[in-house]
Write a structure and sequence with these properties.
By secondary structure, the chain is mainly alpha-helical. 75% of the residues lie in helices and 0% in strands. The protein is flat, with a radius of gyration of 18 Å. About 2% of the residues have low confidence.
């Protein structure tokens, strides 16, 4: 995503990501489309909006002004928001340990928001807020998939959710003349290749695996895979020249402590 932003605006990156992801999965969607009950389409649309649409724009916007390490750590709060959303909107109850885990994790997030960039408290708060909104959306999407779409195959959920947005995003790509921009320079073409990798690996494949985990396990366990995101985000960010401070590791340790405590408890 960060490399795609060298040539494209956050909106263009998000539109390309969603569009390409759908095109990759479209053969499977077309094959299974007749098996989708009519009453499931509204939930697929909501899963697409909260699981793919809004986060794609929010994370791209955030990464235009913050580094990938911090964005990855913020993404790791998704399990905490999955629990909060499940409790408030889907009547799922959790044990006391889970509540304490939520608060500890949020403390870690606030710590990173304040000190994440340089350790001097100069993080761009507005742009940190964008990936945080994306993580909250993941909380809604995970619960919708587990509770409202559990009868559908993961490939149907993944492709169907993208299908609900793809006509709009593909149209926007052409209206904004993004194809012309892609072919206008070698740098743009290289950035486009990175966006293709993002769409194929981080959306098509990763979301498919994530939806499979939700179907086979609990929504909390599935969302816990995001705990690994900060480590990879920091590693790749470091390779690309981003500085790391002690505050990253302290903040991540607090978040991991919170989610560990949360993971000890299962829904009643």
């Amino acid at each position: 995503m960060k490399l795609g932003l060298r040539s494209f605006t956050p909106v263009e990156v998000a539109l390309l990501r969603i569009s390409i992801s759908f095109l990759v999965l479209s053969p499977f969607v077309i094959y299974h489309i007749r098996t989708i009950p009519k009453d499931k389409w509204k939930w697929l649309a909501l899963a697409g909006i909260f699981g793919n649409g809004i986060p794609a724009f929010m994370f791209a916007l955030g990464l235009s002004r913050i580094n990938s390490s911090l964005a990855g750590i913020i993404n790791s709060t998704s399990p905490l928001f999955t629990m909060i959303v499940g409790t408030l909107f889907f009547s799922i109850s959790f044990k006391k340990e889970s509540v304490w885990g939520i608060f500890i994790g949020l403390i870690g997030t606030v710590y990173l928001i304040v000190f994440g960039s340089t350790g001097k408290g100069d993080t761009d708060y507005l742009y940190v807020l964008f990936p945080l909104i994306g993580s909250i959306c993941y909380g809604f999407s995970s619960n919708i998939i587990k509770l409202k779409l559990k009868e559908l195959k993961p490939i149907v959920v993944t492709g169907g959710a993208l299908m609900c947005m793809a006509p709009f995003t593909i149209a926007a790509v052409f209206i904004m003349e993004v194809p012309q921009k892609i072919i206008s320079s070698p740098l743009n073409q290289e950035s486009f290749l990175y966006v293709c990798v993002l769409a194929t690996m981080s959306t098509s494949l990763a979301v498919l695996i994530f939806n499979y985990l939700i179907k086979q396990t609990t929504v909390l366990f599935a969302s816990s895979v995001t705990y690994l995101v900060p480590m990879f985000a920091m590693a790749f960010g470091f390779i690309k020249g981003e500085a790391l401070s002690l505050h990253y590791f302290l903040g991540m340790a607090i978040i991991v402590g919170g989610v560990w405590l949360t993971g000890k408890s299962t829904a009643k």
